Amino acid sequence: xIQERFIDEAVIALDQKGEHIEQSLMDNxxxxxxxxxxxxFKVFTEEETQLLxxxxxxxxxxxxxxxxxxxxxxxxxxxxxxxxxxKLRESFKNWNQAKDAFFEQTNQExxxxxVEDMLxxxxxxxxxxxxxVQEIIxxxxxxxxxxxxxxx
Length: 152
Hints:
Blueprint: H1 4-28, H2 30-36, H3 39-42, H4 46-67, H5 75-90, H6 95-104, H7 109-120, H8 131-148
Helix pairs in contact: 1-4, 4-8, 5-6, 5-8, 7-8
C-alpha cells in the first residue's frame, strides 16, 4: 500500500523539484501521458488537466519513493481497470455511494483519500471542478493507482 507519509513527501518534493519529478512521470509513463491527451481530456480546462497531472505525478513519485523502480504501466491493464471502475460507478445512482464502494474495494486507501481530498479541498487556491469532471479525475486516478500498484 502506498503510505500517506510517502504521499506527503511527494507533495513536498513536487513543490521543490517539480519539473524533475514531472519529467520522471512523462519519461516512465509515456503511454499513459498519451492516453491523458486523448479526446476525453481535451474538454478539461487547463486547471483541471493540471490537477489530474498533479495527482498522478504525486502518486507516481510516492510509489517510486516507497517501492523503488517503476515499470511503465500496462495500458491494457489500465483500460481493464478503468472499465471496471466505470462499471462500478454506473452501478450506483449516487456518486457518494460509488466513492464508498471504491474505498471498500481498494487496499490503497491513503492514495485514494489523497485524490478525494484534493478534489474536495476548500480554500482560496481551490480549483473549481464540476461534479462530472471530479468523477472522471477520481476514476482515472483510481485506475492509475490500481494499475501501478497491482504488483506491489
